[in-house]
Every structure is written in structure tokens, then in C-alpha cells.
Write a structure and sequence with these properties.
Length: about 220
């Protein structure tokens, strides 16, 4: 069996699908014919856009899937969409998102150079923390995104992103600034931009973390 087809079938199985005659979903066929990252991500987004695997499907405006380069060396993974993201359908576009954009610019990159996503694709009501079942339901999506993009470095933003991706009970304060690993990819945990809005003094810690990321990617760092 073609390796790409095997990955897609495994992904669909993890989501709970038992057959492929699902409207608007042609992942297996398309993946075999066109295995580039952009097409695979588009197919995954088509599946996510009609997902009803958890109760957030009843309250969302739209699924917030991910944006950026399908060939990105650097991937940022956050927690879940907020109100602005739910309305626009794009991750990190509110106040916290602007701060993340500023961090990316300070690294001499743009949002188009990296890939940005969340572990939960739909907004929890009132921006509450995601429930365990919501994290479980969405986990196959973020893991498949990582498999497709194959970044060299992942930056997880906040504890929910780190814990959900790895399924380990890491604490963000203890782990930020220290390299971890997920399926052979280096992971740098750091604070969520929303935390930085509440605690501006932590910005220097995040920038120190980003300098480690830049060094790992062979980028020029500055003070």
C-alpha cells in the first residue's frame, strides 16, 4: 500500500471513520494522485470543516484550521481559537495573535514563512479551557498537520498545546526554555501570547526561547 494512502487511512481511523463514502471527503484518492503538503493540508481542512466529533461543533462559527507554509521549518501550536479567530477562521488574529505576529517579525520571519495552528480547532464558549474530550477529539488533526508539514522545530504556546500534542502532563513554567521532542521533532515550550498580555515581564523569557529556536534553525540571532 502507498505510504501516503496508509497515513490517510490511519488518520481517518483515528477520527472514528469506518468507511470512506463521506460527502466532500476524498482524502485517499487525492493523496495518492497528489502528495504535496499543500494538497494534503487542504484535504485535512475539508475533513475538519465538517467535524462533529465533540460538542464544540454546536457552538462554533467556523473551524479554525491553520495558516502558513506547508513546507515550514518552524511551526507554532497554540491552544484554541478565541472570538476573533472564530469569526475570521484564522488562528491568532486577535490581540494575542498580534503579539505572536510581532514575535515572528522580530525573528525576521513572516506568518507566511511559518505554520500556525491550535490543538483545538473550534472555539470553546467564553474562551474557557478546552475539556479533555475536546482535546482528545482534535488531537488527530494537529498530529496529522505535523506529519504533513514535517517542521524542524515546533514551538508550543502554553501548557494545553504542549500537553495535548505530547499527551504528557508537562508544566509550562518548568519546561519553557528547555528542548523536548515529539516524534523526532524538536519542541520548544514557551508561554502563550495571551499570558504575555497579562504578564508583560515574561516577554523577555519568550524572546530568550525564540533565540534558542533561531539558533537551532541556523538563523542569525540578536540581543
Amino acid at each position: 500500500m502507498n505510504d501516503t494512502l496508509r497515513h490517510e487511512l490511519t488518520f481517518l481511523r483515528d477520527l472514528g471513520f469506518t468507511h470512506l463514502d463521506i460527502p466532500k471527503i476524498t482524502v485517499a484518492t487525492t493523496a495518492v494522485e497528489d502528495s504535496d503538503g499543500k494538497s494534503l493540508l487542504a484535504e485535512l481542512q475539508a475533513i475538519a470543516s465538517v467535524c462533529v466529533k465533540c460538542k464544540l461543533a454546536k457552538t462554533r462559527t467556523q473551524v479554525v484550521y491553520g495558516v502558513g507554509s506547508p513546507n515550514a521549518d518552524l511551526m507554532f501550536i497554540g491552544e484554541a481559537p478565541g472570538r476573533d479567530e472564530d469569526e475570521k477562521g484564522e488562528p491568532f488574529v486577535g490581540r494575542a495573535g498580534q503579539l505572536l505576529t510581532d514575535i515572528i517579525k522580530a525573528m525576521k520571519l513572516t506568518r507566511d514563512d511559518v505554520y500556525i495552528a491550535n490543538v483545538v480547532k473550534c472555539r470553546p464558549p467564553e474562551n474557557r479551557n478546552p475539556d479533555p474530550e475536546e482535546l482528545d477529539a482534535c488531537r488527530p488533526y494537529i498530529r496529522r498537520q505535523v506529519e504533513i508539514i514535517q517542521p524542524k522545530v515546533i514551538v508550543t504556546l502554553g501548557k494545553f498545546a504542549l500537553q495535548s500534542l505530547t499527551e504528557k502532563s508537562y508544566g509550562i513554567t518548568a519546561t519553557r526554555g528547555h528542548w523536548l521532542e515529539y516524534n523526532g521533532v524538536k519542541v520548544m515550550p514557551t508561554y502563550h501570547p495571551a499570558y504575555l498580555l497579562r504578564t508583560p515581564s515574561a516577554k523577555k523569557d519568550v524572546w530568550n526561547d525564540m533565540k534558542l529556536v533561531m539558533a537551532e534553525l541556523g538563523m542569525t540571532t540578536s540581543s
